[in-house]
Specification:
The structure holds 2 protein chains of 2 kinds. By secondary structure, chain A is of the alpha/beta class. Chain A contains 10 helices and 12 strands. Classes of the chains: A alpha/beta, B mainly alpha.
Chain lengths: 265, 327
């Protein structure tokens, strides 16, 4: 609990082709616990790859990853799964699990391969469903949910995992405004409770509304990283997206507008 | 909640087992009085040396195919997969046809040859999947299974073409349609040590099976050793399938539809649907085999009955509303 950073990346390099680190080119990053960090960048910037590396699903070609002050490779698979939860961008589930059965799968890190979830696991899963406002749907089949409800169910499953670090890949990409705000407020509440949140997005306004820290990526390179107001600047965003961008401060909040669109009026 | 149906299914299986001992064509068609067991030595011989091993084998066959089917549908994330599809069924069929024509048609030789070619079919599917340059691992295995099965079924076609139409061809056809007419205690002793441990392993890992039906990425993030756990469950499922196919021939539909029936009745969670699948498979195969040996003076191949009854039952089930017995 005493490490200053829950996640520390230093000089991370990665490429899908052999020995050519083209996706991540020397990325360094330190994230303090209990914060919300947004990884912002255009499509293909390497955001999902970065999450997979943090999770241990992909191994970087060079660089160091520490989690809670210890190198990633010192953790077993099970320890990792208790520490880090993942909400994928979307998930195809070919069988119609009920929502509660689906969320209960998040208890796997605490069960041995031959164990079945017990009453405690059930209570934790129900708690996670309650947090996402899905309790009334617990007996519905997962494929019959709307896109937004399914996203909420995936987050509930990750919450049932009780991770200290929660990774979300484009958590709001399929959502309407109401569901989007519900997810963002749940994430903020979790962060206040000490869970570190890292999510990817390509929507700068989402970042402006939620994040404490911003990481701006473009083609695997770190363009800028730091506190929200200092990092989400017109200059940085223009460099990230390759088009002129304005940042407007209104009622204490930041709003990002593309100049090309505002000039069209 | 979910305990009761499993107790009911177990009771049904035991009932079907007990009744099956007295069903057959001796001393008259359909039914033998239990009191005859005390009076008639021939009846005792028949029940304990012919009917009992056959009944036990039918139950094991149904359990193995339905259990393996449930496991493979979840691991391959595809509800249309059946347990013999990785080259196992067609490989076994080729092995049996080859033995009938070239190795002289002794039951044990046919079964051994079927088992060896079943394993060869699986090995070829695996090697081919490893070398395919297309799609993810699951898709490559499915494609390789299709290709290897097609290869062996063309081989079966060739063997049928060259077979003696009066002696060998009927044997091959009968074998390919599946049946338990040749089963004795020695066949049962041959498959039980493979099928029973396999069933115990998949039963113990039944909740874990749910996790293996998720995407690799999600399963990994939940701490699952996807490669190792999938290989273990797939290995024991294929071994059980190959063992029963070797003695019984290709008995279709059990491994495909029974898992659907079980999920429909018990919900998707394999913690409940997998045991139900195993029990329903045992009951279904036993009842079909009772019909196979009772309805007609000769014998109706088991595979014909499982396909006929299975398909009708499946259609009826899909047209009705799902019973949701969940809390």
């Amino acid at each position: 609990m005493s490490a200053p950073y829950i996640l520390s990346l230093s000089d991370l390099r990665f490429g899908y082709a052999k020995k050519a680190p083209t996706v991540l080119q020397g990325l360094s990053l330190d994230i303090p616990p209990g914060t919300v960090t947004a990884i912002l960048g255009p499509n293909g910037a390497g955001k999902t790859t970065l999450l997979r590396i943090v999770l241990g699903l992909l191994a970087p070609q060079a660089g160091r990853i520490s989690i809670d002050g210890k190198p990633q490779k010192n953790y077993s698979r099970q320890q990792m799964s208790r520490l880090i939860g993942l909400v994928p961008q979307s998930e195809y589930v070919p069988f119609d699990f009920s929502v509660l059965e689906f969320v209960l799968l998040g208890r796997a890190p605490y069960l041995s391969p031959l164990e079945m979830p017990g009453e405690t696991d059930r209570q934790i899963a129900l708690e996670a469903l309650r947090a996402m406002g899905l309790e009334h749907l617990r007996n519905r089949s997962t494929p019959s949910l709307s896109g937004g409800e399914r996203q909420l169910a995936m987050i509930a499953r990750a919450l049932a995992q009780q991770p200290r670090l929660l990774l979300l890949d484009e958590p709001t990409s399929h959502l309407d405004l109401g569901n989007r705000d519900r997810i963002l407020s749940v994430l903020r509440a979790r962060a206040r409770a000490g869970v570190t949140i890292i999510f990817t997005t390509h929507d700068p306004n989402l970042v402006a509304a939620t994040a404490d820290y911003v990481v701006l990526m473009r083609r695997g390179a770190l363009l800028a990283a730091g506190a929200l107001a200092a990092t989400l600047t017109a200059e940085n965003l223009s460099a990230t997206y390759g088009i002129p961008v304005q940042v407007i401060r209104w009622d204490g909040r930041l709003f990002v507008v593309s100049e090309q669109i505002s000039e069209m009026d | 909640m979910a305990r009761h149906p499993l107790i009911i299914l177990t009771a049904l299986l035991l009932l079907a087992f007990a009744l099956s001992l007295f069903v057959g064509r001796f001393p008259q068609p359909y039914w033998m009085s239990p009191t005859l067991l005390q009076e008639n030595e021939l009846a005792r011989q028949l029940v304990f040396n012919l009917r009992l091993p056959r009944i036990l084998t039918a139950v094991l066959l149904g359990m193995a195919l339905a259990g393996a089917g449930a496991v493979m549908q979840m691991i391959f994330r595809n509800p249309l997969v059946e347990p013999g599809f990785l080259g196992v069924s067609q490989g076994a069929g080729f092995g049996a046809a080859f033995a009938i024509i070239k190795l002289g048609n002794a039951p044990l030789v046919v079964a051994t040859s079927a088992a060896l070619f079943a394993i060869l079919g699986l090995a070829l599917s695996y090697l081919l999947a490893r070398n395919l340059r297309y799609g993810g691992w699951v898709l490559r295995l499915v494609l390789a299974g299709i290709a290897v099965s097609a290869l062996f079924s063309s081989g079966i076609g060739l063997l049928k073409y060259v077979a003696d139409p009066l002696k060998q061809l009927p044997e091959i056809t009968f074998w390919l349609l599946g049946g338990l007419w040749s089963v004795t205690w020695s066949e049962l002793i041959y498959i039980a040590p493979i099928v029973l441990p396999a069933l115990i392993i998949i039963w113990l890992m039944r909740w874990r099976l749910n996790l293996l039906s998720l995407s690799d990425e999600t399963a990994f993030s939940l701490g699952v050793a996807t490669g190792r756990e999938r290989t273990l469950l797939l290995g024991v499922s294929v071994a059980a399938t190959a063992a029963v196919v070797a003695v019984a021939g290709i008995v279709g539909w059990i491994g495909l539809i029974v898992p659907h029936i079980a999920r429909r009745a018990m919900g998707t969670d394999a913690q409940h649907s997998l045991p139900a699948s195993i029990l329903i498979g045992g009951i279904f195969a036993l009842l079909c085999d009772d019909l196979a040996r009772t309805l007609y003076v000769g014998e109706i191949p088991l595979g014909i009955l499982t396909s006929l009854i299975g398909a009708l039952f499946f259609a009826a089930m899909m047209m009705s509303h799902p019973p949701r017995s969940r809390r």
